[in-house]
């Protein structure tokens, strides 16, 4: 089966399970699956039941696609995503984005847990992703899928400026402090060395992670509107003598901030 046929097969399956085209797709990162608990009248599709979807092996990722209502809109949420470091190909990592596009979804919200590299950032901060730096293989390498988008996609405004403005307005109303910055996407699975965090800072990054960028590139290729948010789960500077990066701490810190992100996403979706 070709990649395009797989996309269609997955889309047809999901379409058969849901009553309406979702207004927005949401990708929930490490420890951020909590938002899914707020979805009303949920239809839960475990990834293992969806043709061509993989198993979600990463810590803090449940592995369900959930349809339902949030903020008065129809949403389709990924509770857990696929990462390049899990050994999946970029085609596999970004298949859900292609499927969302094929389903006719025009807006995608992506979230992740990330390491703060801007020294102003603290654990628990929420960061609007205003731009990114891709340090992974580009997911569009290979034959261009003409039915989705052009060979050389523009990346001048990867993150929708209107959605960023809406997020800031809602954050003021909800009294949720926000950071804004550049997400640097590396392959992982190692956390960065102190020199690498410094390097990410020097090249213009504010937060470091191992996801999101491939999905955003593919979503933009297909001309979907993208909003991205990082939850700062650790600080990549001023390391205490006994500091170590630990995935359980990352998931815990993300979980502690998940409620704030859920509130923001819900009100942003209401305003769509
Ligand atoms: N680096 C890369 N990915 C991450 C980090 C980090 O410090 N924290 C959470 N995901």
How would you summarize the topology of this molecule?
Elements: H1 3-17, E1 24-28, E2 40-46, E3 64-70, E4 73-79, H2 90-102, E5 107-116, E6 126-134, H3 161-174, E7 179-185, H4 194-202, E8 207-209, H5 213-221, E9 225-235, H6 247-270
Parallel strand pairs: 1-4, 1-5, 5-9, 6-7, 7-8
Antiparallel strand pairs: 2-3, 3-4, 5-8, 6-9
Can you put this structure into words, describing what you see?
With 272 residues, the chain is an alpha/beta fold. It has helices spanning 3-17, 90-102, 161-174, 194-202, 213-221, 247-270, and strands at residues 24-28, 40-46, 64-70, 73-79, 107-116, 126-134, 179-185, 207-209, 225-235. A 5-stranded mixed barrel has the order 5-8-7-6-9, surrounded by 4 helices. Helix 1 (3-17) packs across helix 2 (90-102), helix 2 (90-102) packs across helix 5 and helix 3 crosses helix 6. The longest helix is centred in the C-terminal third of the chain and has 24 residues, at 247-270. The chain is globular. The N and C termini lie far apart (36 Å). It binds hypoxanthine.
Beta-strand content: 15-25%
How helical, in percent, are the residues? Answer: 25-40%
Give the low-confidence spans.
none
Question: Which ligands does the model contain, each kind named once?
Answer: hypoxanthine
**What is the residue-mean pLDDT, rounded to a whole number?**
96
Rg estimate, integer Å: 17 Å
User: Main sheet: which strands, in order across?
Assistant: 5-8-7-6-9
Number of helices: 6
Class derived from helix and strand content? alpha/beta
Tell me the distance between the termini: 36 Å
Shape, principal axes of CA atoms = globular
Number of strands: 9
Largest sheet geometry: 5 strands, mixed, barrel
How are helices and strands ordered from N to C? Answer: HEEEEHEEHEHEHEH
